[in-house]
Amino acid sequence: MKILPPFFIFSFLLPPPPPPPLLLLLLLLPLSTSQTSYYFPTDNIAVNCGTEAITYIDNRTWMGDVATNFTPIEPPNTVNKSTVQSSRSNIIIDPLYKTVRLSRSPFTYSFPVTTGPKFIHLYFYPKYNYEFHRSDAFFTVQAAQFTLLKNFSAALVADSSNKSVIAREYCVHVAGEAPKLNITFTPSPNSYAFINGIEVVSMPENLYYSPAEQRMTTPIIGNNIALELYHRKNLGGDDIFPSQDSGMYRNWDGSNLYITTKRVIAIHNDSVSINYTTTTPNFTATDSVYQSAIILGKDRTLNSKQNLSLQLPVDVGFNYLSNGTNLAVPNTVVALAPEDKPVVKNSNATEIIAAVCSSVGFAILFSIVGFVVIWKQSKKKTKRRKKKKKTREDNWLSERRCRIFTFKEICKATDYFSKEREIGVELFGVVYKGIFEDEGNLTVAIKWLNSKSSQGEQEFVKEIELLSELDHFNLVSLIGYCLENEEMLLVYEFMPNGTFNDHLFSTSKSLLPWRKRLEICIGAARGLNYLHTAFDRPIIHRDVKTTNITIDENWVARVSNLRLSKLGQKNTAVSVSKLAGTIGYIDPEYVFTLEVTEKSDVYSFGVVLFEVLCGSKQNDRVASEEKFKLMLWAQKCLEKGNVYEIIDLNLKGKISCDCLK
């Protein structure tokens, strides 16, 4: 397979492919992994801070910064000299995080390097260090003329992302006759700075930065620009660790997180031969990256209705490089951008990096469909794959994009509706966990509708027709149904992390950090917005609440339970004969007028947002009488200017003031 020449594009649409080729996602940013190093960096520095010993980590030598060439420089007459400490914790096994350098005064590492672009990797393990409290660490990091991190708190970032350690990766260009790369850590007032590990590694001249002969073209990434890594994805492949990279110690995420298109297939063929070129050399991405991909499959009717899409979380106010020169690869994406309040000191940033903005503030939708590539596979692998999935593909109804199950299949999947498989009881029926062993242990949620329900067969079919048309990343998908011998069952995607309600109010679940709560709320809002705007007539959910916001294996919000939904009219209220929804979440105007609009869902979602912020349920009967009516209590607090009084006690001190404006 020959690597395609580089190009710049955000959205590229194609007609449905003929049967032989496969539609592949080709994202134009590089990299990957291989156990063979194709690039040998001139500068290859690894410093384990807070120790004088030489440490060997993952087949790499890390030098200490105590009484060595890498001992940091401190200003003269510094009162609070930097200090080093060793961890007593047995939780972190990696030796890199067992020692640390801390200081209440600025300190600088000065690395002698060659001219050219460099990777800078910074490693932080925020923990309690004797008299240094983890929450007191706020500091700024500067490298060369750039401010990489400003008033940075590793503890806040770790807590909000549920990570114990934080790693940051940057790219800067170093110039001069006797170049040195200075990295300075400056504590904020009444704070301290710390660092566990630093890497400085050379990179090829034109990997991310524009070649001199292309400086008149766009996008221009000049030497006066610093970049921060935001995402590096190896789509369709496995995680790739620094020691497996092509010589530059990069880390790759092989998970399917952020893929918004449903029912994609990951494929890998290590028999494909890669022909590298002068414009795309072998260090850009190794064979294993090119040999894996995600595809839509071979259903041309379905493919014509959707694109392969990624939804990558970013921050507003920055510029993002989503493709670059000499970085054409079939199945990887790298987005380089700042995070956590970093400041890139360059007034020309908007001129040299392809700008991509987010209207929501947390995510941006990349809808990128690549080229048609003929994937050469051996006949044995092709036949094996076809045989394995033949039964499943034959049963999919292309006109409805959902599947008809037999009652016998449902019984087997639920272990004949055993009590152990029961995962929920709702007004309209019981929900079971189903496992289809003959189809690769496909796990689903099966809702067995109550035979005494007022819904008849005609309404059941109408509901299926509606649900099968929905296709959005933040909605629980209808996989199929069973209508046999007057038994009505719906088969949905299984949500392993339960409901939003479980994680907000269940004492058996771990506390959700503020950022994760926001991400779930934003995902749910996107799902509702899709219902309201994707079709000629809006779909009004009518029962928005935390129990109907489910969470998948990647902690992505999925709006569920559309059984009470109703087709509306754009910008016009629709009359109903009776109320539907949950008391406490229903729009008061809907109650008094029996007229429902999209705004009714917006009101209900507003109640959810108050629950998320307050950590209390609407109509919570175990709460105090004052807080029983959550909305009224919150409104009184806001009118008195006591906004902080309504914040969940577990979140106090962990929410930025900007979030409450």
UniProtKB/TrEMBL annotation:
The keyword Transmembrane helix applies. One of its GO terms (cellular component) is membrane. SUPFAM superfamilies: Protein kinase-like (PK-like) (SSF56112). It is a single-pass type I membrane protein. Its EC number is 2.7.11.1. Keywords: ATP-binding, Kinase, Membrane, Nucleotide-binding, Serine/threonine-protein kinase, Signal, Transferase, Transmembrane, Transmembrane helix. One of its GO terms (molecular function) is protein serine/threonine kinase activity. Its main location: membrane. SMART domains: S_TKc. It catalyses: L-seryl-[protein] + ATP = O-phospho-L-seryl-[protein] + ADP + H(+); L-threonyl-[protein] + ATP = O-phospho-L-threonyl-[protein] + ADP + H(+). The chain crosses the membrane at residues 352-375. It is found in: Membrane. Residues 417-661 form the Protein kinase domain. Residues 1-34 form the signal peptide. PANTHER family: LEUCINE-RICH REPEAT-CONTAINING PROTEIN DDB_G0281931-RELATED. This is non-specific serine/threonine protein kinase. It comes from Cucumis melo (Muskmelon).
